[in-house]
Structure formats: structure tokens, C-alpha cells
Amino acid sequence: MAEALGFNVYEIIFAIANFLILMAILTKLFYKPFLELLDNRQKAIKDSFANAEAVNRRADEKLDAYNKRIANVEQEGREIIAKSKHRADEQAKRIAEDAEEKAASLLKNARNEIEREKVSALAEVREQISMLALLAAEKILEKEISKDPEGHGKIIDNVLEQVGTTGWQN
Question: What is the pTM of this model?
């Protein structure tokens, strides 16, 4: 019956055998290497993703480390600025205190100099007053002596008596 339909059984068996041999050869030569190639490619992609994740983790760690460093540097910078400002304030305070001390010293020296000048001026004025008093006394005595020669002795005695009781006072 198969021959009535135009099929030859030997040809079909031969075609099936050829197909199976061709499939075995194609599987051996192309399909297995292709599957291995796909497996290798899949492994390479998985490894690439794993490496990318590892690189990303390392990059994140480095970024965190850099951010911490930057924060530390910024904090150190703020501390250095604060310390410098504190030192500058202390130095300004010391300079102001030194200036006040120098001004007080200069003022004290000026007052002492004024006091010395005052004492010196008073001594000079007293000396001039005493000279003027002596000159006035001399003139008065000349007048008195010329009026009363005998009263001259009385005046001298009075002066000597006053000097003896009170002592010389300037």
C-alpha cells in the first residue's frame, strides 16, 4: 500500500537514517559548541555583573571614605580657624592690655614729672618770695633806720627773738 501511494519504505528509512546522522553530526559539531558558547557567554555576563557589583561596592566604599575624609578635613579646617581666631583674640587682648599698661606707665611718669616740676616750681617761687620778702624787709628796715637810728637795735633784737622761738621756716 505504501507503494500505491508512491512511497518507497527503503527510501523513507534511508531518509530517516540520513536525517538522524545529519542531526548527530550537527549536534556534535554545531549544537554542543553553540550551547557551550551560550553557557560561556552566560557565565561571562554573570561574572561581569558580579564584577560590576564589586566595582560599584568598592567605588561606594571609596566614595564614603572620601566623603569622610572631606568631612574630617572640613572639621579640621573649622577647628584650625577657631583656634586661629581664639589665638588672634588672645593676642589682641594681650596687645590691648600691654597698651593700657604702657599708657598707665606713661601717665604715671607724666604725673610724677608734673609733681617734680610742681615741687621745683614751688621751691623756686618760695625762693623768689623769700628774696622779695628780704628785699622788702631791707627797704622797710632802711626806712625805719633812717627815721629812728636807735630803733634799729630794737628791730634786730625782735627779729632775733622771733627766730629763736620759732626757728627758720620756709
Answer: 0.40
